[in-house]
Each structure stands twice: as structure tokens, then as C-alpha cells.
Amino acid sequence: MSVTDVEKDLENLTLTVVAHFDAPVEKVWQLWSDPRKLERWWGPPNYPATVLAHDMTAGGMVRYFMTGPDGEVSRGWWRIHSVDPHKYLEFVDGFAQADGTPVAGDPTTRVQVRFSERHGGTRMEVRSIYSSREHMEQIVRLGAVEIFVQSIDQMDALLAH
Amino acid sequence: MVVDTYRDETVDHLFHALADSTRRDILRRSMSGELSVSRLAHAYPMSFAAVQKHVAVLERAGLVVKERRGREQIVRADLEAVRRARRALDELELRWRDRVNRMSGLLTSGGDPTDGPGS
């Protein structure tokens, strides 16, 4: 097992997964920085990812889509916040429309990845910070219709008019 | 069960449940803690049965859970919310475990061609 530690913080809606690989940091970094490698692990075998654009610099965008077993396509994007090769990567992951632009109001996840050398191999820590419980569930269902009470007060105001 | 929770029918229930101001108020109250249906009935100018009906609609939409405690019916929203958050995090953990396993596989195969279709 490569995963050495998992930490779930329900209050802060944060999931931290720590993994160890018997490979040098450069190789592990390449799994993220090389789009052809990235698309071989980002999606599950029945939902493979295809990376369309891959600009891994601060402010750059990664655009991808995933193809489901019935041919259905869900599109996503990363907006890169911070890159320190072989050490740190931070980006926001979200859903995209057919033209690749972010879906306004849809859930996003902030992902922080830390890489370090450990016992001749690599320690990789992936921290995912979800914006809300509703968003978390929506991400889990990947595009499934999930409408929830974001703000009941807001609805009250809307319906009062 | 988990997968089928979010079908169109569920969304219809949800909209129906939230389309009424009394139900929205009950939901808001139940989010800050446990409530008894009889106490709720005192808060609104309507019969106990009418309040019970509203609670049933919220329950069907999955927004509140109802529990009988002695003679009282207790309504609450929090516990289910926590359970759902946990379940969502569990699923996301699995997703990342799978990803890490695939990464591991890629690192040990040393970049050899896969059995995948390529393009």
C-alpha cells in the first residue's frame, strides 16, 4: 500500500492523503507535470481523463475532460496558484462547461500537494479543501444533479418578492 | 442506495419541501438543534396535524430526520448532515487511494506502454 496516512477533518471539510513511493521526487513530480502521465492516473479506468491544455505555471490553466462508460463527458479545469517544482503545487479544481470555461457557482476544490524526499523515496501529501458539504457531495457524484439548501434565508428573500 | 439518492425524484421532493415558508422555518429551527413536533406546533398558527404534515414533507426530502422518543416526536437536521459529510469524505478518500495506486503502478512500470488504447 502506497497510502501511509489519511486524515479527515469534517469540521474544516479537509481530506489529507499521505503516500509513499519508492521513486525519486522528480519521477513523482512528473506524474503531475507531464500531461500524458497525468491523464493515466487522474481518472479511474472506466472514466479516463484526457488533458487538453496544461500550463503548469502560476496563473496557468490545466483543462481536461473525463469520458464515462456510456460516452458521457465531464469537463474540468485547474487554475494553478503556486508551483515550486519537486516541492509544492497548489491549484483549484473545478467543473467546466462544454467550451472549457468554469461553471459559475459550481463547486471547486483547493488542492495542495507537498513533495519531499523520504528514505530514498518520495513522500507526497495531497490536501483537498472543499468549500462546503454540499460541494463535497457534488464532487463525489461528479456532475450529478445535486441541489441543496445553500442558504435558506436567500431563498426566503427571493420567494418573498 | 447511496448512488441512487440523488435522482430527479429526490430533487422534486427537495423543491417541493422548500417551496413553503413554514417548512423553511422548521428546517431553519431544526438546524440549530433538536425540536419536538409538539413544541413546533405551538410556534405556528396551525394544528398539530398540519405541522406533522410539514415535517413529513421535509423528512421525505431528506432534509430532517424524525425520531420517536417516548410520547414526543423529535425532529433534527444536524446528525444526518454530519453523516453525509463523512460519507462524502469516505468516497473522496477512496478516490484518492485509487489515484495513488495508479500512480504507484505508473512509477514501477517505468513508463512502459500500457494495455490502454493509447490516444
Describe this structure in words.
- The complex is a heterodimer of chains A (161) and B (119).
- With 161 residues, chain A is an alpha+beta fold.
- Chain A has one domain (3-160): START domain (Alpha-D-Glucose-1,6-Bisphosphate, Chain A, domain 4, 2-Layer Sandwich).
- Helix content of chain A is 19%, strand content 43%.
- Chain A contains 4 helices and 8 strands; from the N terminus they run ββααββββββαα.
- An 8-stranded antiparallel β-sheet of chain A has the order 1-2-8-7-6-5-4-3.
- The longest helix of chain A has 9 residues, at 25-33.
- Mean pLDDT of chain A is 82; it is low at 142-161.
- Chain B has 119 residues and is mostly helical.
- Chain B has a domain at 3-79: Arc Repressor Mutant, subunit A, CATH 1.10.10.
- Chain B contains 5 helices and 3 strands, in the order ααβααββα.
- Chain B has helices spanning 8-18, 21-31, 37-43, 48-60, 78-109; strands at 35-36, 65-69, 72-76.
- Chain B has a 3-stranded antiparallel β-sheet.
- The longest helix of chain B has 32 residues, at 78-109.
- Chain B is elongated.
- Chains A and B meet through β1, β2, α1, β8 and α3 of A and α1, α2 and α5 of B.
Please name the defining characteristics of this protein.
heterodimer; A: 161 residues; alpha+beta; Alpha-D-Glucose-1,6-Bisphosphate, Chain A, domain 4; eight-stranded antiparallel β-sheet; 43% strand; globular; B: 119 residues; mainly alpha; Arc Repressor Mutant, subunit A; three-stranded antiparallel β-sheet; disordered N terminus; disordered C terminus
